[in-house]
Design goal:
The chain is of the alpha/beta class and 742 residues long. 30% of the residues lie in helices and 24% in strands. The structure holds adenosine-5'-diphosphate and zinc ion. One of its GO terms (biological process) is DNA recombination.
């Protein structure tokens, strides 16, 4: 957005309005009283009325006589010029139509309706004498949310009870119902409260970040340090500085629904809770946060990736915690990586970005390095765990040398280590990144493996749900007793381990231990997961069996042993990112093993990797603890292969119910790739996508590799603009910077 553009348009002026409809930008006349740039409006579109935002001066597409005026203004803070520029550039970067991008930014319910008065429930008095489970659940929700003020039905829903339970508590005087404005400001975070006394590395990091924030210009910093090194403590100080400057801060977390611990830490540090933005919040909370972000009435937002599209009034800091995490990449509707979009947004807002990780992505490692391609980001290192806490000792269990009866996955060596922990009242975590009971259901008579009807994927048995489930499309079917192929009865068998099956082995092998399986399938809500995690942290379990759900950010103080059941699981893929991903996951899960007794002494944590290939470079890198050597080697490999970040990639996925149709169209596109060649890009494929059929659609993939500085988006646009008309029902999506390099 050019700074000389007017920010207010006079009545009757020709303005460009970006609607949320596929038509995109259209010209209208500014209404009586004029209108501000970024103002949300309702405009006529044919016989309909649609929502839009004032995007700039009119483009002159129509004669003035045919123009219609804006119908009315929406009562919300106008989008800032920075937000408009961000959406424009994010749309260009990701090759997303602008109206779709605008919809990402307008994800607040009932924007075009005035705020209705709302009845809300507050805590009033002590709990009633007769405290049923249902009543207790309601009180827990409201106490957890520190007076957020829920509508009665929302409160009931969150607590998983009927609304009559809430009414009963109102009648008993424990809760009170009042009228409240829908959109009330968030409690102010107090940045003048003292933080913790920092150690030398932390102080140096905080100094550097503070200087950046005070400078009021853009900058990105990679904050690296092992789990427990105090990164969170450091970036909370960056948040404090941002608040003191009167600007807003955003912290992105990969598993936001599980971030109870983080919210508590914010409350301890700043005396109030931040705004929360993720799929688990209610419509009312969503609406409130959206409006308060725009008015500058929320200082800190903690959110999932989509929080990046909130209309902040003055965003001064974006923290991307666990910046390497793959959940930051959205692979539907709009393909974007929140980490990269955070950098884009910050560069527009003159804000600072902190990318925090124990195991950064190779891209960020290169960007923050001093080698080729480096120097774009600053780098700060926290070299040790905070205090006396040490990293766990690492060891491999060579499965070729272990006695492993079929149907058993816990080696005698690992079992002995578990027994030792149990004897000392400590916890053990067994990690297996496979949901369900068994990955394969096969017929012992004919060898048939049960697959999904609509996808090229095996069905995975989930014994807890008593069904087979397709992990691609979610389809389920009953576990067959007879083989669907040969019809023989009673010979179907589960092959291979999933976490549920590992749970059975644990129950048989350690009958006296209290075991918990932590896998997303076994819980009906984020709240249930949170509760279980809290109970584990409180010592109510001895053995935890988990998928990657347990790898992230939970502190289990009694946990001193981590056993990785199948360290080879992620190593085999042909994907260039396979090594990086396995390394990150194993390093992270190993980091859960702490020191028993905390800083006060005691025993060091231990992580044991069960593997058939103890000499694999990834396993050796994990065991040696020399992470920097690993990242350098990965970066060198990427450079030699001319892969990102030393080149740019874009993935094109085409799909259609008929295989010949999609193949023919893809081949035609490939023949017309001259615009790509003009920028020096190469086109690989078309080839069947890694999973060639999903939801009954055949998928064909092409991969474009371009030199690092080449205008790849413009070339792709030109290429697709010159394509022949697509057959009906063909879908084409472009994924800039795809996660998978296959
Ligand atoms: P990370 O984010 O790197 O995993 P955290 O910031 O969560 O590390 O710190 C790990 C633990 O050490 C937390 O319990 C935290 O409260 C504590 N801690 C970190 N720094 C300090 C400090 N300067 N003073 C006291 N406790 C600290
Ligand atoms: Zn399927």
């Amino acid at each position: 957005m050019d700074s000389h553009l007017p920010h207010v348009f006079a009545p009757g002026a020709r303005i460009g309005v970006l609607t949320t409809e596929p038509v995109g930008l259209l010209d209208y006349l500014a209404p009586e009283g004029g209108v501000a740039l970024g103002q949300l409006v309702v405009v006529p579109l044919g016989p309909r009325r649609v929502m839009g935002a004032v995007w700039g001066p009119g483009q002159g597409h129509f004669d003035a006589a045919r123009l219609r005026p804006v119908a009315r203004l929406i009562d919300a803070q106008p989008l800032t010029p920075g937000m408009i520029e961000f959406l424009d550039r994010a749309a260009d970067y990701t090759l997303t139509p602008l109206p779709v991008m605008l919809r990402m930014a307008l994800r607040a319910p009932d924007l075009d309706r005035p705020p209705a008065e709302r009845r809300v429930i507050h805590r009033a008095g002590p709990a009633p004498a007769r405290l049923t489970d249902a009543r207790a659940a309601v009180l827990r929700v409201i106490d957890d949310h520190g007076g957020a003020g829920f509508a009665p039905s929302e409160l009931a829903q969150l607590a998983g009870v009927g609304v009559s339970v809430v009414r009963g508590l109102v009648a008993a005087g424990t809760l009170v119902e009042t009228a409240a404005p829908v959109d009330m400001p968030f409690p102010r975070l107090d940045a003048s409260l003292p933080g913790k006394a920092l150690d030398a590395d932390q102080s140096a990091a905080v100094q550097a970040l503070r200087a950046g924030i005070r400078g009021g210009a853009y900058g990105t910093t990679l904050l690296r340090g092992v789990t427990g090194s105090g990164k969170t403590e450091v970036y909370l100080e960056a948040v404090a500085e941002t608040l003191r400057q009167g600007r807003q801060a955003l912290v992105l977390l990969p598993e936001i629904a599980l971030s109870a611990e983080f919210l508590d830490r914010v409350e301890t540090r700043f005396g109030a809770r931040p705004g929360e933005w993720h799929s688990g919040i209610t419509r009312t909370e969503r609406r409130r946060l959206w409006h308060m972000a725009g008015r500058g009435e929320v200082g800190l937002v903690v959110g999932a990736r989509s929080a990046l599209f909130l209309p902040f009034r003055d965003l001064g800091l974006i923290v991307v915690d666990e910046e390497h995490d793959s959940s930051y990449k959205q692979d539907e509707t709009v393909y974007y990586n929140a980490r990269d979009m955070a950098v884009l947004r910050a560069s527009i807002e003159q804000a600072q970005v902190v990318l925090a990780s124990a195991t950064p992505s190779v891209e960020s490692w290169v960007n923050a390095g001093s080698g080729p391609g480096g120097g774009k980001y600053a780098r700060l290192d926290l070299r040790a765990r905070y205090g006396d806490a040490e990293l766990p000792q690492m060891g491999a269990i060579d499965l070729r040398e272990e006695e492993m009866p079929s149907g058993r996955w816990i080696s005698p060596t690992l079992a002995a280590a578990v027994d030792q922990r149990l004897g000392r009242g400590e916890q053990a975590l067994l990690f297996l990144n496979r949901r369900g009971y068994a990955p394969i259901t096969t017929c012992r008579a004919c060898g048939h493996q049960v697959g999904c009807d609509d996808c090229d994927a095996r069905m995975v048995e989930h014994r807890f749900q008593k069904r087979l489930v397709c992990h691609q499309c979610g389809a389920t079917k009953p576990v067959p007793t007879a083989c669907p192929a040969c019809g023989v009865e009673g010979r179907m068998a589960a092959v291979g381990p999933g976490v549920e099956r590992l749970g059975e082995e644990v129950a048989a092998r350690f009958p006296d231990a209290r075991a918990v399986v932590l896998s997303s399938d076994l819980f009906t809500s984020a709240r249930a997961i949170k509760d279980t995690i809290a109970r584990i942290a409180g010592g109510e379990a001895d053995i935890i069996i988990g998928t990657q759900l347990v790898a992230k950010g939970h502190n289990f103080p009694l946990l001193t042993l981590v056993g990785v059941i199948d360290a080879d699981l992620g190593l085999q893929g042909a994907d260039l990112r396979a090594a990086e991903r396995s390394f990150q996951l194993m390093r992270q899960v190993a980091g859960r093993a702490g020191r028993f007794g905390g800083d006060a002494g005691g025993r060091r944590g231990l992580a044991l990797l069960q593997t058939h290939q103890p000499d694999h470079p990834v396993i050796r890198a994990i065991l040696s603890g020399d992470d920097e050597a690993f990242w350098d080697a990965e970066a060198a490999q990427r450079r030699a292969a001319q892969m990102p970040p030393f080149s740019r990639l874009a993935g094109i996925i085409l799909s259609h119910p008929d295989q010949p149709v999609v193949e023919a169209y893809a081949a035609e596109l490939a023949r017309r790739a001259a615009p790509l060649r003009q920028i020096g890009a190469e086109l690989f494929g078309p080839a069947p996508a890694p999973i060639a059929r999903v939801r009954a659609r055949y998928r064909v993939r092409m991969l474009i590799r371009a030199p690092r500085q080449a205008p790849v988006q413009a070339a792709i646009s030109a290429w697709l603009a010159g394509a022949p008309k697509a057959p009906a029902n063909l879908r084409l999506s472009v994924d800039i910077d795809p996660q998978s390099f296959l």
